[in-house]
Amino acid sequence: MLVVSTGRTVVLAAVLALMAGLPAQAQTPYEPAPARARAAAITPIPFDTRRGVFSFASQLERSLPAVVQVTTLGRSEGPRSGDNEPLPLATGSGVILDAAAGIIVTNNHVVEGGSKFTVDMLDGRLVDAVLIGADKATDIAVLRIEATGLSQVAVADSDALRSGDLAFAVGYPLGLDQTLTMGVISGLGRSGMGDAVEDYIQTDAAVNSGNSGGPLLDSLGRLIGINTSILSGGGGGNDGIAFAVPSRIMLYVVGQLRAFGEVRRGSTGAIFGSLNAERAQALGLHIVRGAIVDDVAPGSPAEAAGLQRNDIITRIQNRPVANAGSVRATIGIAAPGARLPLVYLRGGHEQTTVLQVEVTGPDPVVLGATAVQAYGAGFRNLRSGDGVTQDGVLVTAVEGGSIAAMQQLRAGDVVTAVGDVAVADIQTLAAALSAATDGISLTVLRDGETETIALVG
């Protein structure tokens, strides 16, 4: 859409003219008044009649003062007193969500590891900020500042988005001052980028290092998501694939962090994995979209709902399920006691049920007939086809946002010991996990190498 020539950015007016239904002669920047009036009446793109240009400036300008730069500092342990001054660890962006309370939302990875935080505002003010709380599973963090004359952004319902909607990313990328880029919503419900609560908005609006934590806005300047990550073919630059946490998830997490300093999630007793071509073929299915039930804890809400291993969840709360991330995201922001309608496949036949979310306990160890669930991971005994010759138990699934996920335990790991206790089967694993008091370290076999994972410190 943009052509750069001799240092000037020229809008391809012919494209806009086609979108507006205008004749070709309307390309001139000095079009006559009747043409401007006709453009304003026909085109879906806002037309500034005073300047004679198409522009979203009026819709977006009211939100730009709410977009800030966040700097995270950490203490340096140098040999001299002057070396102990806080040093910058990371910079990113943020957006003011509540001007009266000075509440700013940004990314967890922007503030992680910091001991001090500062906020640069569009009007040139620099103020200190206090970290209210952060949630690694959704990559959301909340800061608070004390300042007057703040602006806040309006929030739109991300569930109303459609692929093809215009989107604008605002932030402070690559050391630049506040920057605005435009693209479209390229996809919805994206996940699979890691063990997290994922239900991302995908956009091709240019997002680079420093945009993290900044807002993704719709064409009315309303907040629809928080920019959090990109996919890059190399070098970490923008390749037109960026992801944002939708406002639906962001608002729940921010509310929890403001109220409790942490996110209190419910649970269902089920661990979900993503359906893929390999697993679909093994189950004789002809679909590759959905979440597969990898494990169900005995006595859990999932068992009460009638779910069984290898059931395929296709819809949850009337939302289509693309993969396990879709289910984790819905459960991850559901209040304890919420009842979630499910549509699932079993043996090729569609069935429905209601899954109730319960209050999360202190990560209990649940031993079933064929599996163990603990700290958000599922375990089973090794089988002859697993290709492992030594004793241990297999990690079958890891729930996004759980302790196991945050400590980098992975499906496919083989646990051979808990602390100094050798693990031969699920019974010894459950006993060792339940008996641990001060901390839990796992010895795991991964890709032929032995590693130690501090599951609980």
What does this molecule look like?
This protein has 457 residues and is an alpha+beta fold. The protein is built from ten helices and 32 strands. It folds into four domains: 2-55, no CATH class; 56-263, Beta Barrel (Thrombin, subunit H); 266-359, PDZ domain (Pdz3 Domain, Roll); 366-456, Pdz3 Domain. The strands form seven sheets. Strands 25, 26, 27, 28, 29, 30, 31 and 32 form an eight-stranded antiparallel beta sheet that branches. The protein is globular. It starts with a strand and ends with a strand. The relative contact order is 0.08. Mean pLDDT is 82; it is low at 1-31.
Key phrases:
457 residues, alpha+beta, Thrombin, subunit H, Pdz3 Domain, 4 domains, 8-stranded antiparallel sheet, 6-stranded antiparallel β-barrel, 10 helices, 38% strand, disordered N terminus
Return the CATH class of the largest domain: Mainly Beta
Low-confidence stretches: 1-31
Distance between the amino and carboxyl termini? 53 Å
CATH architecture of the largest domain: Beta Barrel
Total number of beta strands: 32
